[in-house]
Amino acid sequence: MDNQYKVLLLGSGGREHALADAISKSNVLESLKVYPGNGGFSEDVLLKADEISITDKSKFIEYIKSSQTNLVVVGPEDPLVNGIADWCEEIGVPCFGPSAYCAQVEGSKHFAKEMMKRAKVPTASFAVFTDHESAWSFAQKEMLPLVVKADGLAAGKGVTVAFEMKDVKRALDEIFLESKFGQSGYKVVLESFLEGEESSLFVITDGERYMCLPAAQDHKRAYDGDIGPNTGGMGAYAPAPIVTEAVLEKVKSRIIEPMLDDFKRSGHPYKGLLYVGLMITKEGEPNVVEFNCRFGDPETQCVLRLLDEDILPIFYASAIGNLPVRNLKLKQGSSAVVVLAAKGYPDSPEKGMVLEIPPNEGNVVVYHAGTKRDNSSLLANGGRILGITSFGKTLKDAIDECYTFLSTIKAPSTFYRKDIGRRAL
Ligand code: AMP
Ligand code: GLY
């Protein structure tokens, strides 16, 4: 057997609960610690705020050294954009996640668009502006719909798909005049509208080699029928039939390989997870909507259920630049996740509701997101509360099982979409 890994996992969402579940099953795991985690983790796994910091470099390094952590797995984008993988590199500790330079692929829309342009990766045409007046005068000559994107990280709220000029104006006002996104508002990307069907593809890479997980489809709008406000994601399923073998081959040769080559040429090979957000046309032509520098949430919760091998050696191999040249071992079948959200999500979710979740049944696994423990009670503590996942021979089996289980959960003042995966059934 290889090394035994002492792993630190960072993050607090359903994505991290699913990652922890996969890591816990590893044959080469010595110990797992999680920070800050959520109500789904047992107390002994969680680190406390006085033990570690993800914003204070010296406190972070002190913890890594004293705990003898030998693999750091980073869930969310913020610490990556802030350079946590570089801190690990400085002390010679492998980190599954890209450097701050590479994380700009998510941290700056402008960076990502320039890179795609250079690498000739198919994506929407764009223009970049740093003041309201020039952005607005350009926009008025453009066709609608037009997509307005704040340049920097905006917790998923920086994008407006505008179908009317007044919506373009509103978005520009918010960015430049009201500083809604703070620093992100110094720059705006105006982008043409892409038509088609969206899919999320997760690529594990060591900078040189890469492995793809099965493509997933997320449901971003809050309510059934794809209406209501944009959210982080209300449910997902995998594999997404829209990403056929032929589409995947195009994604590899036109998107993944040129991007990894460009990172390499820049002297910053990309390590970790590259999330490719695709828009696939009716004709099966893939375009990039966005890149993220981390796993998607809630897609991860269902995608990892299709993995049929130990994930930890793969994360480690990515981190040290030694990824095997082969495909990942996958289960035959489909998986789904349905998100239980608090009433008021995404704008002002209610909190503090007492949750009663029966034990997992059949193929169902429940991942926690916005939950916390208060003595013996489990309380809602965030917009997306739980992700109910299942796996089945068919997508219908997986989805039906999620919904049957959801009907047994007691969770006042919550809601969930009833149509996850319906389009693929
Ligand atoms: P992003 O944060 O870049 O993923 O944008 C959020 C959502 O806005 C995406 O998931 C798409 O649904 C939509 N979107 C972003 N860019 C475009 C585009 N160029 N054309 C159509 N829809 C877009
Ligand atoms: N579910 C979309 C994302 O993780 O960005």
From TrEMBL:
Cytoplasm is among the record's keywords: no
- What GO molecular functions are on record for this protein? ATP binding; metal ion binding; phosphoribosylamine-glycine ligase activity
Q: Which reaction does it catalyse?
A: 5-phospho-beta-D-ribosylamine + glycine + ATP = N(1)-(5-phospho-beta-D-ribosyl)glycinamide + ADP + phosphate + H(+)
Tree of life domain: Bacteria
Please, one GO biological process term? 'de novo' IMP biosynthetic process
Describe the location of the ATP-grasp domain by residue ranges.
Answer: 113-320
Q: In the Enzyme Commission scheme, what number(s) does this protein have?
A: 6.3.4.13
Keyword annotations = ATP-binding, Ligase, Nucleotide-binding, Purine biosynthesis
| Protein's pathway | Purine metabolism; IMP biosynthesis via de novo pathway; N(1)-(5-phospho-D-ribosyl)glycinamide from 5-phospho-alpha-D-ribose 1-diphosphate: step 2/2
The cofactor named in the record is:
Mg(2+); Mn(2+)
Family as reported in the entry's similarity comment: Belongs to the GARS family.
Question: What is the protein name for this chain?
Answer: Phosphoribosylamine--glycine ligase
Organism field:
Leptospira biflexa serovar Patoc (strain Patoc 1 / ATCC 23582 / Paris)
User: Upper taxonomic classification of the species?
Assistant: Bacteria, Pseudomonadati, Spirochaetota, Spirochaetia, Leptospirales
In the UniProt record, what gene is named as encoding this protein?
A: purD
